[in-house]
Design brief:
Blueprint: H1 8-19, H2 23-36, E1 41-47, E2 53-58, H3 65-71, H4 97-104, E3 106-112, E4 119-125, E5 128-135, E6 140-146, H5 153-156, H6 162-179, E7 184-188, E8 193-197, H7 209-218, H8 220-224, E9 226-233, E10 236-243, E11 248-249, E12 255-259, E13 262-264, H9 267-277, E14 286-287, E15 289-294, E16 300-301, E17 312-313, H10 316-334, H11 340-350, H12 370-378, E18 410-415, E19 419-424, E20 427-432, H13 433-450, E21 456-466, H14 469-477, H15 479-484, E22 488-491, E23 496-503, H16 511-524, H17 535-546, H18 556-568, E24 582-586, H19 587-593
Parallel strand pairs: 1-7, 12-15
Antiparallel strand pairs: 1-2, 2-6, 3-4, 3-6, 4-5, 7-8, 9-10, 10-15, 11-14, 12-13, 16-17, 18-19, 19-20, 20-24, 21-23, 22-23
Helix pairs in contact: 1-4, 2-6, 6-7, 9-10, 12-18, 13-17, 14-16, 16-17
The structure holds adenosine-5'-triphosphate (ATP) and magnesium ion (MG).
Magnesium ion (MG) binds next to helix 2.
């Protein structure tokens, strides 16, 4: 066989194989071109999931007739003025998208650059070029792509249903729109609007345009439950919004990440997110976030993925540290603030014929500045109640206090031996005593570790726990680490361990359950991992078995002590699985339930 040079059309089809995976890839390339062209409005149509027609019209700078001819040539770009791949400030830079699309579909581009008195159209049909001819267009550029993959039938077979392909197109427009609140976007399917996002400017009622755009896309709940993220390490800057853990989903679809304005799906970034939320969410739950990482262009290589969906960082450790640090700080500052969706859902459930949400603005459940509250509560800091039968709360006079003194109010009763009902200045708080206590124990273990170790409590009669051989091995391997956390175990013949001491702050513990659950936990973790790296999970498991379980009766002082400790404890608004520990219903909303307002 002899070696030959491939014809241009074949080269372009090969390139298209990487760049144009599905209709949404075309939408992405065309909309990115419109953004690079300085458009303020971008209108997209995607018919039949994009297979029959995709069109993108913008009011950007447009192209001259000479530019039009160049634009469809391979490796022709206006975006790399000095051949420097290290300083890329535009979304495009390869000069590959248009020729690739033209090689596998019917592409036509109509454009007018401002001083020109005339628009021009050029078209490429599966690689066959029709030279520019005059056309009618006010200004900007309109690109139409018909019959995608007609020239590469093999690819056609991989298209999913129009509905699925449309969903992908919607997703990419949403992502690009998040990064550009100042640009108006619309997306239609030929009959109706799927997305309509007017440009948001800074001046409107002082609200952050980014948050306005995000809530238009991610929903009002995100708006009400988002923490502002702003952090910097060296030249890397992280901004955006991250949801409270109680606002979570079963998949990562509501996690939007951007690097230098580019939507990315980057493993490193997702990993950092998981790391930051680990202690607050079960591993199969995902927080909602929209985070924007900006770095000097030479600190990140965007030329590592055909669709530019992944990037490579010069200093991955710095990026991870920035993200984890910023999110953890925000989570700590959010304190015990729980998601308003929880209160909203609760109200919806009890309202007769339950309908609309009644929480306007950022109000709603549990939104207190935690710092002031923590200081306030410090005076009433008391031992963790309910761990033994000792009278546990010294502040017996609490019942006479006014509810206005405490953010979580004064306990008025316990119902179903599971929930504490407290009266606040302007509402009521319902606490899930088990979830709350679990979180408090967890925070206590962490604090004890930081300040010299967890106190242990010897057992009068050591408890023998029978387990399968593998579980025994896993536990014994980690015996030293467990001892640091207050749990002293030893191997006990074949297939059992003996527990000699337990963490004092767990009080009466369901030891068998705890030991078995820890063994299960360990089975899922890497062997090399130190327990301290999984501290959140270990604490959660311990707390879960030592808590004031649902079903335990609490007296008044015990309940109030629990409320006061919640106020004083960071992260007490949700248990370690992301469930809320309490909900608050405002009097105003309760009044609405009864038609008083
Ligand atoms: N909507 C538009 N408005 C104005 N100019 C455009 C538009 N779309 C494309 N162009 C011009 O055509 C050129 C080629 O576009 P193309 O998308 O093929 O490559 P690119 O954007 O430069 O790089 P990449 O392949 O990375 O997207 C661009 O560099 C730009 O000058
Ligand atoms: Mg481009």
């Amino acid at each position: 066989m002899t070696i030959r040079r491939l014809p241009e059309t074949v080269i372009n089809r090969i390139a298209a194989g990487e760049v144009v995976e599905r209709p949404a890839s075309v939408v992405k390339e065309l909309v990115e071109n419109a953004i690079d062209a300085g458009a303020t409005h971008i209108d997209v149509v995607v018919r039949d999931g994009g297979q029959t027609l995709m069109s993108v019209a913008d009011d950007g700078c447009g192209m001259t007739v000479d530019d039009l001819s160049l634009a469809i040539e391979r490796h022709a770009t206006s975006k790399l003025p000095d051949d420097d791949l290290l300083t890329i400030n535009s979304l495009g830079f390869r000069g590959e998208a248009l020729p690739s699309i033209g090689a596998v579909a019917r592409l036509s581009i109509t454009s007018r650059a401002e001083p020109a008195d005339q628009a021009w159209t050029i078209s490429v049909d599966g690689g066959d070029i029709t030279p520019p001819h005059p056309a009618a267009l006010g200004s900007g550029t309109r690109v139409e792509v018909r019959d995608l993959f007609f020239a590469t039938p093999a690819r056609l077979k991989f298209l999913k249903t129009p509905k699925t392909e449309q969903t992908h197109a919607v997703d990419i427009i949403k992502r690009l729109a998040m990064a550009h609140p100042d640009i108006g976007f619309s997306l239609g399917d030929g009959n109706r609007d799927l997305i309509k996002l007017p440009a948001v400017s800074g001046s409107m009622d002082g609200a952050d345009p980014l948050l306005q755009r995000l809530s238009a896309i991610m929903g009002r709940d995100f708006h009400d439950n988002a923490m502002t993220i702003e952090a910097q390490r060296e030249d890397a800057v992280l901004t955006g919004y991250a949801g409270l853990p109680t606002l979570n989903r079963g998949n990562a679809q509501m996690q939007f990440l951007f690097v230098n304005g580019r939507p990315v799906r980057d493993k490193l970034l997702y990993g950092a997110l998981r790391g930051a939320y680990r202690e607050f969410l079960a591993s199969d739950r995902y927080p909602l976030v929209a985070l924007f990482l900006d770095l000097p262009s030479d600190a990140v290589d965007v030329n590592v993925h055909p669709a530019k969906a992944e990037v490579r960082f010069r200093d991955a450790g710095l990026v991870r540290g920035l993200i984890v640090g910023a999110l953890k700080r925000a989570l700590a500052e959010a304190g015990h603030r729980a998601s308003t969706t929880v209160a909203g859902a609760a109200l919806g459930a009890i309202r007769p014929g339950g309908v609309t949400r009644s929480f306007g603005g950022g109000g709603g459940g549990g939104t207190y500045g935690s710092t002031g509250m923590r200081e306030h509560a410090e005076n009433f800091h008391s031992p963790l109640p309910g761990l033994d039968t000792r009278p546990s709360a010294p502040d017996v006079a609490m019942d006479e206090e006014s509810p206005g003194d405490y953010p979580l109010g004064v306990a008025r009763g316990q119902i179903h031996e599971t929930y504490i009902i407290a009266q606040t200045e302007d509402g009521i708080v319902i606490v899930d005593q088990h979830a709350a206590h679990e979180r408090l124990v967890q925070e206590r273990i962490k604090k004890a570790l930081d300040t010299g170790g967890v106190q242990r409590q010897g057992m009068l009669i050591p408890e023998v726990v029978e387990l399968e051989e593998g579980a025994v091995l896993r536990l014994v391997e980690r015996a030293d680490e467990l001892a640091e956390l207050g749990l002293v175990i030893e191997a006990f013949g074949d297939g059992a361990v003996v527990v000699r001491e337990t963490p004092a702050l767990l009080g009466e513990t369901d030891i068998k359950g705890l030991v078995r659950d820890l063994a299960d936990d360990f089975a899922q973790w890497d062997e090399g991992l130190a327990l301290t790296q999984k501290l959140g999970d270990v604490c959660a498991t311990m707390a879960c078995h030592g808590s004031v379980r649902a079903g335990r009766r609490l007296n008044g002082p015990e309940m109030n002590a629990l409320l006061r400790e919640m106020e004083a404890t960071p992260h007490s608004g949700q248990c370690s699985h992301g469930r809320p520990t309490y909900v608050e219903l405002k009097l105003a909303d309760i009044e609405k339930l009864f038609g008083r307002r």
